[in-house]
Amino acid sequence: MKRIGIFLMVAMVILSLAGISAAEPTLEKIKNSGVFTVGTRTGSPPFGYINKQNEWVGFSIDLARLVHKNIEKKLGQSVKFELKESAPATRIPLLSSGAVDLIAGTMTDTRARRESVDFSLTFFVTGAQFMVKRGSPIKGVKDIAGKRIGAQQGSTNEREIRTRYPQAVLVVFPDQPAAFTAMTQGKVDAYTNDGIQLVGLKMKAPNPDDWEVVGEPYTYEPYAMAMRKNDSDFRQVVNVALMEAIEGGEYFKLYDKWLGPKSETPYPLRHDARTFLMMEVVPK
Amino acid sequence: MFDSFMWLAGFLGIPYQFRWGILWEAPHYTWIINGLWMTLRISAISWIFAVLLGIIFGALRTVPFRPLRALATAYVEFFRNVPLLVWLFFWYFGAPEVLPEPIRQWLIHHGMEFWSAVAGISIYHGARMSEVIRAGIQSIPKTQLEAGISSGLSVSQTYRIIIIPIALRLIVPPVTNESLNLLKNSSLAMTIGVAELTFATRQIETYTAKAFEAFTAGTVIYLVLCLGIAFVMNRVERKFAIPGLIARAERAEH
Predict the structure, then answer these.
(1) Does residue A85 form part of some domain?
(2) Could you tell me the pTM of the whole model?
(3) Which of A207, A254, B57, B201 has the largest CB neighbor count within 10 A?
(4) B205–A187: do the CB atoms touch at under 8 Å?
(5) Is CATH 1.10.3720.10 correct for B45-194?
(6) Among residues A186, A214, A242, which one ends one of the domains?
């Protein structure tokens, strides 16, 4: 009898948790709850991070705010904008369970991920490079054989090194700060991640000039926002917000704010990337 | 079985397609096996050190000599009252930095991640283990010690030959508990770059975006491991129980 009671209790907890996420369309869920929850990063400048003033800011967050505006326009009512930490390992479960409605951080659009979530248009393009101590013999992906290479778990570049460059000794950390500290202490010879993230890390380091970002990008990393699968109405709202931002120039103003030459993380928008973004915008 | 899980997902209304097959696709199953092997290795080595530390400091906490008692108390309170995660960072990012450079370099190229994790887990659990062992020793009537000494044994001989062997037989249930904790806590080693079982399940999630399948596999493996250990320890407990000194469940029901 006691066992059945426990079983019922567990079942009820699971059901009540799942009830929140019951397959209602995201727009309806936002309308009913009055909250639009975005999963983003806390330590990935300039996309999503806590700044020196202790505010949670970033390029991806600003883009998510544009989506938020478009949702309010679509629903004809104001909704609350909420942020939630979502690390690479937790973001898909958070999305699937309904804890967040949109992932806007540093997530690369991949074919494998498209089997679990839907992606928006690409909003940023980068590729993996290496961060090393200034003067290190590692100048690119050709020099990593036998070297200890730090990587962040959940990143596409870790997978690339594992499969394409098995001669490297891969040391994988669950988060960026740990991997970066290991590199500064010489416990790994280089740290690899998306080029833009390395630029962000370098700027945050106590002595930015001690570190170098080297090598031609050896992966292609298109960043996009992720949402629950098969919800084309919501996806449309997200994509239209991005298209309008690119078309109206708002996107490029934000790019300049977070990644322009005067920003803390200068990462010039390459010509081909700009053309690619413009061509994502379909006619009205 | 998989169909019933699919049914569950549909029933709960999670927009998610289960694909349990990814778990035995290459190279995913090899990651699980390697991760499991690493978890077992790190847990076994840490367990041995933890038990040794536990016996030494647990015994020291009860000896009739104050400075030694104070030393043992300091060890226990210092190490068990700081979260294990912090200790792991300390043993990986902090402690090796004060070593002479050649030793540090040697360690870096000979599995520093692994040994830092072993140090962190065994010293932390050693502190907890010594509390269990102290409790075991203190549950033995003081007259045993007195009898030992008056029969001509020294204090350390009395401990070695009489007190500790009895105490170890008394504390099997709490040691089992502590050992299971140690096994589960070994998953924290992932934070300093040790590719153990939890790491492997996250790795699969990373590659396949199939979080529920990967984490379910990890959960089931930990559960089976822990149940296995509990089963074996239950047998050990039965075999080494001292009649009258350890209460067995069957008897408690009478």
Answers:
(1) yes
(2) 0.74
(3) B201
(4) no
(5) yes
(6) A214
